[in-house]
Amino acid sequence: MDKSPCDDRCREQLGSGLEITDESAQDDQIFAPLLDQVQQHCGEEHPTYLLLGDGAYDRNEIFNLLEKRGIRSGIKTRSNAATHSTRSPYHAECVGDRIRLGEYQVWSRITNYGMRWKIEGNFSGFKRIFGEGVRATSREGMFREIRMRVNCCNTLVAAVARAKPPQEDPRGNPWRLCNTAL
How much is the average pLDDT of 93-110? Predict the structure, then answer.
């Protein structure tokens, strides 16, 4: 059975959590609010049981938060990370696990790290459609513009998810398919 960390409501959207920041914010600084949003949005029926993250999330504070909430780490740790840590024993344990497994490829398969392509693909598609820049000049205007783009993207994704499957051509041609409702 496929365990999804979110229900249909979550899957219809670009993300289950959104924090809009300027370029000075670091990923690890907004991690806790994003995790709160995801867990609140997905509820107890679909708990977050695994977190996949790139090296930007390789921070003791993040590992401590994951351990506290009972979430397994799929964060790519640095190749030279310490295997002993008084600030985050869970981080040291994850580093030790990665080293014991030997190759990066083995660790990647066991943690499902390769599944990050799903969210990376979403962001790539979002940027292709809406671009990476904003036209607004004020900080509040920039945030409002990004929120509107995300809402628009979520509406498009939800519309496609609810779209009816293609039906036969109403003129009877079995080789042509169309999306028009009869």
Answer: 89
